[in-house]
Design a protein that fits this description.
Helix 5 packs across helix 6. The protein contains six helices and no strands. The protein is mainly α. The protein is globular. The protein has one domain.
């Protein structure tokens, strides 16, 4: 198997494992997510345990992986250099939170939920794709890329 084919197999397996984890944890069920976000009503804290589990796995895996000189399929690790909290970040985070709170989906679970053909998932992913398209058009016209300048 070629290096490129190995990369695609690994990406596919990683994505499938992530999707299974989202299904098992309940993150693909909007009512479960909305129950977690409803802290003044019938709050369901179970997703906090899912998040803590994910953080714990990442904490260990990150330290193990960063011992390597480079990722398996890239020449070097990418470390974001942009640390500025600006209007673009605040607006993006607010839109993400509003969308998550209204629909009960965020991008990963929304895409996984397409497999169920649930109308809410299909509408969410259509809106996600429209938002990505509009953002791409805006960035192309304004010259904004969302990336930090080289000297940042």
């Amino acid at each position: 198997m070629t290096h490129g084919a190995q990369r695609y197999v690994l990406c596919t397996l990683s994505g499938a494992l992530f999707g299974v984890g989202l299904c098992v944890s309940g993150m693909t069920r909007p009512q479960k997510v909305l129950g977690f976000l409803d802290i003044t009503g019938d709050w369901d804290p179970s997703l906090a345990l899912v998040m803590l589990g994910a953080v714990a796995v990442h904490f260990g895996a990150y330290r193990l992986i960063r011992r390597r000189p480079a990722p398996l399929y890239a020449p070097e690790f990418f470390d974001p250099t942009r640390r500025k909290i600006d209007l673009q970040l605040i607006v993006g985070a607010a839109l993400f939170g509003i969308g998550w709170g209204l629909g009960g989906y965020c991008p990963g679970p929304g895409v996984v939920s397409i497999g169920s053909a649930a109308p809410s998932a299909l509408v969410f992913v259509a809106a996600l794709l429209a938002g990505l398209f509009v953002t791409g058009q805006w960035e192309a016209r304004s010259g904004a890329t969302g990336q930090a300048p080289p000297d940042a």
